[in-house]
Amino acid sequence: MATLTDLCQSIVTGNVAQAKELTQALVDAGTAPLEIINDGLIAGMNIVGPRFKNGEMFVPEVLMSAKAMAVGMEIVKPLLSDTDMPSKGTIVLGTVKGDLHDIGKNLVGMMLEGSGFKVVDLGIDIAPEKFVEAIKEHNPQIVAMSALLTTTMPAMKDTIDLIKEEGLKVKCIVGGAPVSQGFADEIGADGYAPDAASAAELCTKLVG
Amino acid sequence: MQRYQILTQNEIEKIHETSLRILEEVGVVFSYAPAREILAKGGAKVDGQRVYFPPAMVEEALKKAPSSFKLHARDPQKDVVIDTKTTTYVGPYGSPYVIDLDKGRRESTLEDFINITKLEYMMDNIDVMSHIPCEPNDIPAEKRAAEMCYLTLKYSDKPLMGSVLGYENAKKNIEMAALVFGGVDVIKEKPVIISIPCTLTPLSYDDKMAGAIIAYAEYRQPQLINSLCIAGATTPATVAGTVALQNAEILAGIVLAQLVSEGTPIVYSASSSNAEMRYGTLSIGSPEDAVFSLVNGQLAKYYNLPCRISGALSDSKCCDTQAAYESAVTLTMAQMAGGNFILHAAGIIDGYATTSYEKMMIDDEIIGMLRRIDRGVTVNEDTLAFDVIKEVGPQGEFLSHEHTFMHFRSEFYQPVLSDRQNADQWEKNGALTAEQRANARWKKMLEEYVEPKLDKDIDAALIKLKDS
Ligand code: B12
To answer: What is the pLDDT of residues A43-85, one digit of tens each?
Structure first.
């Protein structure tokens, strides 16, 4: 008999095949979908998060856990109406105009997904107008920008300025190696985080 | 000279074959249309932005690049030969931050740029000016490339590197350097500016870098076709897989350069390292970085091309013990690997993001030590010194002997920073740590700096071209 504890464990160990199997078995056995999500899938990620933070787990392991959770979600999702679906919110993410660095941004995206956000990743070299377009289309709570070049950091300000000009209600956060809290304050961003794990914490705080 | 072979010839060939397969079956994205046109004309299969290379086309191009060339300096005594045997050391490159003991870490400015340029010029161990030892963040981005080129030419008479930020910036830098040497026609047979266009890993080239490759090749100026892969992030976590992919990227760039201009000088350039999986960040002070250096050195030798390897590398956030031991290991391996153009040979910490003033001096010492090791040992009658040994005999001393007087300077390296006094003397002289002595040394260098002469008319012409 598949149990929620087993499912939770398969998320922690990043066993994608097992997570899929157990989720299906629990569904077939009549376990409530919300229970599967909260006490199985998300419960697993709630163990993974702190373990990553204190150095017991590493990035590829966390990503595999996130993948295992996503596979389970895919099975449960159709059984729930949109409003029942627990989601912390939507985040539009992208690397700013002129900048092609995307490793950090991708990592942030995966962490955000892992902690329960819906992430719309626009990619690299994203102009302010493109961000604005995506905000209008996806209605996110947060827009997250990444820049790795001092020469492209000003594009973050341009984007925030345009978002304000358009009167869009969305929180803006920034990050990337040369970006700092000071810079974030200076350009009127709502938040900054130095790494992917704290980016997830920041977003959780901002929507909470 | 290569001193350490980490792979067998057979293994190197396997990597090469895998790279050829990647080029033929997976392909490389070139977003820059002019590059795709050149490659298509040269025999590559182009599908959208993706370019597929037949193996014969790659092998052909590899044969055309020379294995040695001379890079000319404003002062001809400082000309540098770049080949597959000697080692050229080059300063830090690209950091948006600087740090020193007095003012701490900060965004670098024009003042820092000029200071570190002067230090590169003053340091005997630095052979080529990196042209961007830190970003002059207070200069508008669109003016930076020309400004940095001008300032490097003005404050130093050593050979220099140039901008790779797109075809136009590259072209202007080349023309500026050419001005000093008698014009663009002269430099075609006389390389004066070297560059480092970089792949957008995995398996692509952006507009700027492909444009730069074309510009430097058109003027037949040397370029380091470079790939910086992050094993486990942009490439497989296995060293072999990363190297196969990285090599494919580099070969694609070499093909493009040779198609633009056959025989244009190339330095095989690789600086891959691994991801720190606790954070997903790049780690450069790692033993894997050193392993990559060794493999890259062997691959370049296999292609009979000069080889760029980095450097005195560290992930530390300041100039501390971690910075020193990581740098000593990585720089030693770069030399053992047979690196011929060692970029980032001084100053780098923080995964390439910060240049440390003090570490410029620490690394100067490491380079000095490596240069001494590189010189090796001379064995002849004079150095074997049988007659001297016989003369001094048992229980004698050599300190006052003429043979010692004649030889110690050439045999022993004289440290510029390390402390070798006795403890009492050291205390009397202020009990300074290496970092503190480094701090004093770079300040003294800046005080003693004298600008090399630059012809007034050339200077005026340079300024005019820079501002045009
Ligand atoms: C890898 C790399 C590249 C790769 C990028 C591959 C890719 N697919 O992304 C390549 C080789 C292509 C590249 C190209 C260039 N690069 Co580069 N690159 C780097 C390097 C070494 C590491 C960056 C990285 O991926 N780190 C790993 C990730 C995981 O860390 P991260 O990005 O910092 O992200 C973390 C945090 O910052 C944060 N974060 C990131 N984004 C966000 C967003 C939000 C909202 C939040 C909250 C948090 C957050 O979370 C992440 C995870 O913890 C850095 C040096 C460095 N140490 O930063 C130079 C560096 C950034 N590059 C630099 C330069 C100069 C360039 C080039 C111009 C080089 C050239 N001559 O070719 C080109 C420019 C291309 C362009 N137009 O963008 C300079 C920048 C100098 C400056 N003026 O700012 C650096 C500092 C290196 C140097 N000394 O030269 N680069």
So the answer is: 998 899 889 888 899 989 998 998 899 899 999 988 887 667 7
Ramachandran bin of B456, using left for φ above 0, alpha for ψ from -120 to 50, beta for the remaining angles: alpha
Taking the C-alpha atoms of residue B195 and residue B221, their distance in angstroms, rounded to an integer, is 8
Find out whether B80 and B88 touch, Cβ atoms under 8 Å.
Answer: yes
Give A59 to chain B, closest Cα distance, Å. Answer: 5
Interchain contact A196–B (C-beta under 8 A): yes
On whether the CB atoms of residues B63 and B73 are closer than 8 A, the answer is: no
Nearest CA in chain A to B145: A151
Distances (CA, A) of B148 to A117, B117, B176, B450, B462: 44, 10, 11, 19, 12
- pLDDT averaged over consecutive 10-residue blocks of chain B (468 residues)? 86 98 98 98 97 97 96 97 97 97 96 98 97 95 95 98 96 96 92 97 95 97 96 95 98 98 96 91 93 94 95 97 97 94 97 97 98 94 97 95 95 96 95 97 98 96 95
Per-residue DSSP letter, B455: -
What DSSP character marks residue A54?
T
Show residues of chain A in contact with B275, CB under 8 Å: 59
What is the atom index within ligand 1 of the atom nearest the CA of B352?
A: 89
Q: Where are the domains of chain B?
A: 63-375, 381-411
Residues of B in contact with A103 (CB under 8 A): 230, 233-234, 280
The CATH topology of domain A90-207 is Rossmann fold (3.40.50)
Q: B88: which strand partners?
A: B341
Question: Which residues in chain B touch residue A65, judged by CB atoms under 8 angstroms apart?
Answer: none
Ligand 1 site-directed mutation target among B106, B198, B359, most atoms within 8 Å of CB: B198
**Nearest-by-CA chain B residue for A52:** B278
Candidates A160, A146, A161; CA nearest to A99 is: A146
Residue of chain B with shortest Cα separation from A176: B281
Closest Cβ opposite residue B279 in set A149, A178, A195: A195
CATH superfamily of B63-375: Trimethylamine methyltransferase-like (3.20.20.480)
Partners of B342 in beta bridges: B89
Per CATH, is A4-79 categorized as 1.10.10.10? no
Q: Which amino acid is at A51?
A: R
**A182 close to B (CB below 8 A):** no
Note whether B278 contacts A58, CB cutoff 8 Å. Answer: yes
Nearest to A34 by CA among A109, A96, A86: A86
Q: Which atom of ligand 1 is nearest to the CA of B234?
A: 8
What is the predicted ipTM?
A: 0.81
